[in-house]
Amino acid sequence: MSQDQILGRLGSKSHWRTQSETLLARYFQAHLEDLPFETAASIAKKVGVSAVTVGRFLRRLGYRKLSELTLDLRARGPNSAWQVKEPAPGKSNGNGAGIQGRQLQAHIDNLTRIFGQASTPAWGKAVKLIADAPRVFVVSFQNLRGIGDYFASQLDYARPGVRFLDGEDGTFVDLFDGEPRKTCLVIIESRRYARKAGPLADRAKAAGIKVIAITDIYCAWADDADVSLTDPGEGEVFWDSTVSTVALLELLLESVIERLGERVPARIKHLTALQDYFGDFGDM
User: Fold this and answer.
1) pLDDT tens digits for the chain (284 residues)?
2) How far apart are the two ends of the chain, measured CA to CA in Å?
3) CA nearest to 203, candidates 211, 195, 193, 212
4) d(CA 118, CA 126)
5) Which residues have C-beta within 8 Å of that of residue 189, sequence separation ≥ 6?
6) Residues contacting 148, CB < 8 A, separation 6+
7) What is d(CA 15, CA 47) in angstroms, rounded to the nearest whole number?
């Protein structure tokens, strides 16, 4: 089976029967370059399924075991994803002192995946929606709330009509008031997922609002969004890192600014004049 065939089968929603298989398909898609260094047990632990489930998934994919898949991918021609990775400094130190090196390598891998998305059709669609929609709402919850609020504030400098929602009113009424066809909703999510996120995406879609999901590969409702951008978010320490989340949002913001063009300087000039008038910002 060629790599294109493998990726095609992994991306086929109709091929996978269970939620576990769908999660595994997403994991394999996002981590092809890491498969030579994985085992069924290590994949099972990361995805949150059993090793038996991983084995069953591989058989549905057309392979008896993981090593057959990796050999098949290697045999189909050169691919930069299969080059041997140089370990980051300290990565080989087994006494715990190498955690900085492992975390550095994880950040490098995650940032590489993020910047790779910037050339995809999904990225272009997300940028167009955020730049062109008359109204843009940004939603994030729990420990990602601050990051979402910051993204909305930065986006507000580039264009008008941006608002951060926290849902504390229990209704999200500001989102659903107005004209849904002129509204875009950006939901920033990761495990453990907020209970409101999925229902909010469903209700917004039903109302005709365009939904952009920025979340990890395991999110069950992300495929139903109009656009889904993947935040790798995986690291080598106890907590998942938000470095990749911030990097994705910063890159997305820069892409939106590029699309807005000359509208951005005019917007900043307008806001600067207001800041100077009301005196909230002091000079050095």
Assistant:
1) 777 778 788 877 777 878 888 888 888 887 777 787 788 888 888 888 898 999 999 998 889 888 888 877 765 544 433 333 444 444 444 444 577 787 888 888 888 889 988 989 999 999 999 999 999 999 999 889 999 999 999 999 999 999 999 888 888 999 999 899 999 999 999 877 888 999 999 999 999 999 999 998 888 888 889 999 988 876 655 556 788 899 999 999 999 999 999 999 999 999 999 988 998 777 65
2) 63
3) 211
4) 10
5) 140, 141, 144, 197, 213, 214, 215, 216, 219
6) 138, 139, 140, 164, 188
7) 19
Residues 164, 140: Cα–Cα separation, whole Å: 8
Place of tokens 């917007």: 267
Report yes or no: 157 and 265 within 8 Å, Cβ to Cβ: no
Residue 280 sits at φ, ψ, to 5 deg, of -80, -20
60, 62, 63, 74, 186 from 9: Cα distances, Å: 10, 10, 13, 18, 28
Q: Cα angle at 129 between 125 and 135, to 5 degrees?
A: 170
- The DSSP code for 139 is E
**What is the Cα–Cα distance from 189 to 224, expressed in whole angstroms?**
14
192 cis-preceded (ω within 30 degrees of 0): yes
Sequence length of the chain is 284
Where do runs of H (alpha helix) occur along the chain? 3-10, 19-30, 40-47, 51-61, 66-75, 99-117, 121-132, 145-158, 173-176, 197-206, 243-260, 263-278
Amino acid identity at 96: G
Task: Map tokens 């891998």 to a residue.
Answer: 109
